[in-house]
Amino acid sequence: MHPVLSLRHYRHEPIAHSHEHAQLVFGLSGCLDFEVAGQGCQVLSHSLAVVPPSAHHACASAAGSHCLVLDVPADGWLQQRLGAHADAGRRLLERPGRVLLNPAQSQLVNWLAASPINDEVIAQQGAALLLASLSSSPPAASPGLPLAALDAHIARHCAHPLQVADLARLCGLSVARFHARFLEETGQTPMDHVRSRRLQLGRELLLGSNLAVGEVAARVGYASQSAFTAALARQLGSTPRQLRRESRDKSRE
Q1: Cα separation of 82 and 132, whole Å?
Q2: Deepest in the core among 143, 168, 214, 225, taking most CB within 10 A?
């Protein structure tokens, strides 16, 4: 059995296994791509991944990640150490996935990471305190995606190719998790949204400037004027020329 608390460095080599005991992986620095029981998440600072007993899990970190790992001893340990919190602790350890820490919990994790956790008393009592804190307060809800920041990024870079991975990185999520969250929150896939934003920005340029249509197309990421015109007609039902003519006609009314 592993020590109850340990510091671990994860690198780009993937690890995939399961074990009979539950495990909590707390992020200290870097980004750890984690999958447990088929659910993908990323472990960053102020968050942790819950691995239930016997759950298959895999992880890797392209740029390296430093984590504090709590290997939960047998069930009798929970009852002995957590007392009234033991049942809530078991429920916490049965739910795979990512949990966000509140500021006090983050301070405790960082304090333990800087402490001599090879000392049995510090490790045992620190692990119990962490679990009691997590069990006595509901997990923090994941915040919504930063849609305004994503739109600002798209606007700044719309003249160039945009990848879903770039947007996912801004949110600290894996591509698969970001795609699922984006679809859930907006009803669109990320790339459908990027295309819509390109056309909205193109429309604004058409109506707010005297730029040639080809220049507008290039500024919002279209390889040709004809591709931009066709996309605009499909999305808005009007060509660039029609949009400008309708805008001039309205200004004369």
Answers
A1: 6
A2: 168
